[in-house]
Amino acid sequence: MPTPADRLRALLAQPGLLLMPGCHDAISARLIEEAGFPLAFMSGFAVSAARLGLPDTGLISYGEMVGQGRNVCSAVSIPIIGDGDTGFGNPLNVKRTVQGYAQAGFACIMLEDQVMPKRCGHTQGKAVVAREEAFMRLQAAVDARNEGSDILIMARTDARATDDLDEAIERCRAFAGIGADITFLEAPESEAEMRRYCNEVPGPKMANLIEFGKTPVLPPSQLEAMGYRIAVYPLTLLNVSIKAMRTALARIQQGQSPEVLDFEALQAAVGFPEYYAGEIRYRCSR
Questions:
Q1: CATH number, domain with residue 74
Q2: Whether 51 contacts 60, CB under 8 Å
Q3: Burial, 57: exposed, middle or buried (Cβ in 10 Å; 0-12, 13-18, 19+)?
Q4: How many domains does the chain have?
């Protein structure tokens, strides 16, 4: 059987842009697979919000993230890319984080060059480490992969916000040279910046599409023409779920019935039909 990393490599070898919604738990991952998407992204922003009710400012731990990832990866058959933040420490911590994410079932881990504790890429207060530290972190990740951890490495830089586009592009070019499978220049602020990144950095690249964020949310056809390989929508499901829950709560307060799934559809969404089929298969005669 192909591993999650094998399935992601196969997707990257095919032509066309990969559309990748973000998940935050097992049910959101299952819904992404049910809708027919070929892969999903476990967002640190979304997991921190769903699991802790806290912002993505480095408050969530390695253990909490890898535990959530284990549940997400075991719930679906599509490959999952996991947010590994800064790797949770020095290069040796990064190496352990890569190994742990591979063991949890992730197809790929995203690692960034921010100072720890980190910040969400489209928020204020970010800082990045010096180039040498960023490169050593990535080298440790690549070493973990090359020493047997079956996982791809996505290298992210936030230097566009802290320095300038030139620095961000230079870091991405170096990341590709060190051995990153995918690069990710976070938060370019115009189509021209996105196009320059695609033109000047080799290898697969990811566009991060956050509604009302700093990067233009372009249609898939335009992103593909620029040279992007993956388009991630990391917060869309979290966003619409918060909006839907607030709407439902307001209707309950007003004595009205919220718009919901019927109970049979709700049971199907969480897997009751499969469980009942298993009960029949393994029923013991008396």
A1: 3.20.20.60
A2: yes
A3: middle
A4: 1
